[in-house]
Structure formats: structure tokens, C-alpha cells
């Protein structure tokens, strides 16, 4: 069982930056594929980006602005968000899985990001 805890959300003006963190429990963090998702108000949850042993992958809407990274020694995955837009406002979730082709097995509780215009 893996527990994920996000932090770093908040209110930021358009054009600003935030860095989200997600700390995972357990001692097999380095083996997990870690993903970030977001759910805007009144909308479904969407994929943002992920990181695995093969590299990173991003949704088109955030490519060039967001960066996913990880520190396996700290059991932590990060989402650096730059050039934020009001449409980036959402609850952001981190998730973990062990298999490239499977669903994400574990989810955090989410952290709110609000971008004002």
C-alpha cells in the first residue's frame, strides 16, 4: 500500500509559478510511475504529466510550461508549474502505478491551485 500526500497548492496570479510536491510512503518509490492529474471546477479529471524510468510525458495543454521531476531519495515527485493561466485552476492530484499499461493504483487527496487573472 502506498500513501501519497500532495502539498504546495495555493493562489497565484496569471503568469506566476508554483511547485507542487507529492510525498509517497513505502520503500519502493523508485519503481513507481508517478503521474499528475487535475480536475477543474465542474469538469472531469485530466492527465497533466508523468515520469518513469523512460522519461517524462505531458499533456499538450501544459507542455513547455510544466515540468515533472522526482527525487527518489526523498520519495517525492514534483510538478513545477510556470506561466500559469486562469484555466490551470484545478485540484491537482498525484498518482502512482507500477505498470505502464495499467490504471493508476494509488491517489493523493489533492491540492487546490487557483490562478487569478
Helix amount: under 10%
N-end to C-end Cα span: 40 Å
So how many helices?
0
Strand content: over 45%
Largest sheet: 7 strands, mixed
Overall pLDDT metric = 96
Q: How many extended strands? A: 11
Low-confidence stretches: none
| H/E series | EEEEEEEEEEE
Structural class: mainly beta
What Rg is obtained from the alpha carbons, in whole angstroms?
13 Å
The backbone outline, from C-alpha atoms, is globular
Structure description:
This protein has strands at residues 4-7, 10-13, 18-24, 33-39, 46-52, 55-58, 66-71, 76-81, 90-97, 106-107, 111-116. By secondary structure, it is mostly beta strands. A hairpin with a 4-residue loop joins β7 and β8. The mean pLDDT is 96.
Task: Present the secondary structure layout.
Blueprint: E1 4-7, E2 10-13, E3 18-24, E4 33-39, E5 46-52, E6 55-58, E7 66-71, E8 76-81, E9 90-97, E10 106-107, E11 111-116
Parallel strand pairs: 2-11
Antiparallel strand pairs: 1-3, 3-8, 4-5, 4-9, 5-6, 7-8, 9-10, 9-11
Question: How would you summarize what this structure contains?
Answer:
By secondary structure, the chain is mainly β. The chain has strands at about 5, 10-15, 20-25, 35-40, 45-50, 55-60, 65-70, 75-80, 90-95, 105, 110-115.
Kindly list the characteristics that best describe this protein.
about 120 residues; mainly beta; four-stranded antiparallel beta sheet
Amino acid at each position: 500500500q502506498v500513501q501519497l500526500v500532495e502539498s504546495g497548492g495555493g493562489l497565484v496570479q496569471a503568469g506566476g509559478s508554483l511547485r507542487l510536491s507529492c510525498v509517497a510512503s513505502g520503500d519502493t518509490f523508485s519503481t513507481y510511475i508517478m503521474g499528475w492529474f487535475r480536475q477543474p471546477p465542474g469538469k472531469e479529471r485530466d492527465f497533466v504529466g508523468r515520469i518513469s524510468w523512460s522519461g517524462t510525458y505531458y499533456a499538450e495543454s501544459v507542455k513547455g510550461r510544466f515540468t515533472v521531476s522526482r527525487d527518489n531519495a526523498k520519495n517525492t515527485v514534483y510538478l513545477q508549474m510556470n506561466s500559469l493561466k486562469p484555466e490551470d485552476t484545478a485540484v491537482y492530484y498525484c498518482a502512482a502505478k507500477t505498470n505502464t499499461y495499467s490504471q493508476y493504483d494509488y491517489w493523493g487527496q489533492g491540492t487546490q491551485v487557483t490562478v487569478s487573472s
